[in-house]
Recover the amino acids of this structure.
């Protein structure tokens, strides 16, 4: 298997490219995560816990 990889040649460039791509995407996602505003995060964090959508659904649903 290693002989086949040695014959292909140029694979180290793909390894370097993939490592740089990973580092760039990871850095960009971390910058984006730290730049989010606290009110936005609190609003998004509370969405699954709000009762407002459940009440609206119960008004439109038929009685059991």
């Amino acid at each position: 298997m290693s002989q086949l990889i040695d014959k292909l040649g140029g694979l180290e460039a793909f390894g370097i490219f993939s490592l740089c791509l990973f580092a760039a995407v990871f850095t960009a996602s971390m910058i984006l995560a730290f730049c989010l505003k606290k009110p936005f995060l609190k609003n998004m964090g509370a969405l699954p816990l709000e009762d407002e959508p459940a009440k609206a659904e119960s008004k439109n649903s038929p009685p059991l």
